[in-house]
Each structure stands twice: as C-alpha cells, then as structure tokens.
Known about the structure:
Blueprint: H1 2-34, E1 37-43, E2 58-64, H2 76-79, E3 83-84, E4 99-100, E5 118-123, E6 139-150, E7 155-172, E8 186-191, H3 193-205, E9 207-212, H4 228-231
Antiparallel strand pairs: 1-2, 3-4, 5-8, 6-7, 6-9, 7-8
Amino acid sequence: MKNRSIILLAIIFGLVASYLIYSYLTGIEKKLNTAELSKVVVVAADIEPKTVLTSDMLQIKELPGEYIHPLAFRKTEDAVGRVAAEPLVKGEQLLSVKTAKWGEAKEGLAYIIPNGQRAMTVAVDEISGLAGMIRPGDRVDVAAVLSILDTQTMKETPYSFIVLQNIQVLAVGKNIDAGAQTEAKNVTLAVTVEQARPLLLASQKGAVRLMLRSPLDNGTVSAQPLKPSDILQ
Length: 233
C-alpha cells in the first residue's frame, strides 16, 4: 500500500512538472509571437580574421528587439567591405566592435595602406626628414644622391635624382596618427611594387631626402639626373 502511494505521488508530481514546463514554454512562444521583430545582421558562415566581408557572408534575421545587441549591424550594406577583426562564428550577430574599416588608423598600419600599394620604410635624420615636421597623411617627393662609376675613367661621379614624386606618408616612426607631429629616424611611405624598386636602390646606395609637398599640389615634373659639372653650365 505504501509503495502504491509513493508511485501515485511521483506520477502526480511528474504531471504537475510537465504542465508547468508546458505553460512556461507556451508563454515564451506567445511572447515571441507578439513581440515586435526587428532586423539584424548575422554571420552566415564561420569567418577567419582579416577577411573582407561580402554580402554572401551575411544574412538578415528578424528577432525581438530586446534580444538584439545595441552594437549589431542592422543593414548588410553597412557591414559589407569591412574586415573581420577577430574570428566570427556562424549565426552570431555581427557587432561593429568585431570589425574594422579600411582607412581607420586606429586599426593599425595595414588598414591605411591604399589598395594596390605597399608600406615601405626609409631611414631619415633631422635634415632628410625635415626636422620631424612631416606628419602621417602628408605627401612627399623623394630625392637621392648616387655615385655612378665611369667605366672609362674608373672614377665615381655623384648624381642627384628625383626618385619618386607625390608619395603618401603612412607613418612617422611608429606614429600613424595624422594629427600628431613626431620626430623619428624613419618614415613609412605608400608605394607600388614598381616604385619600391628605385626607392630601395636609392635608400641602400645613396643619401635619400624627403621634400614635403603642398596639399594643393598633385602634379609631377620632369627632372633629369644632375651631376656637379651641370651646375656650372
């Protein structure tokens, strides 16, 4: 008799527990059905860091507003073109803090290099670096003096060259903030692969100087190499 009572109580408690769980789940479902839904951008597949986001990597999902993170993107067009700053997992809401935008210096040097160009650093001193008055974002011309060997006389003659013109300064020392002026022993420039070749040669074999340009001046000039005797002509 006692065992039957225990079994009966267990059945009753089980039914009550089932009813409470059912009521709880039904309440949540009703709440979700009646809640105002909003659109949010979610990740469509796992994404590795440093990946440029495209539209096929993202999806729009509708969720109750209270479940949407305040930093989540609401439109895919606002996220396309940004870069994953950390691993992104399929199904998660895409947050602005987990992405970076090209051109934002705060994200690091790699994010401000123009497309198709490379960052290359050259050594400067107080004279060749304009006494530290060059800032990131400025544009410069690169001049150099190289000694060329005359194969007939076996004597070297110094020549001055304009190596490159209208080159963007990406960093001065470790500073990539355009608003700060920093004295440093090196300057990082944005160059194409073709421009890197003469710049490397000039910086390795000669004395390089930077010439600061006006922000209004985007032109280039034709300048032939000059040797000391040409000055007297």
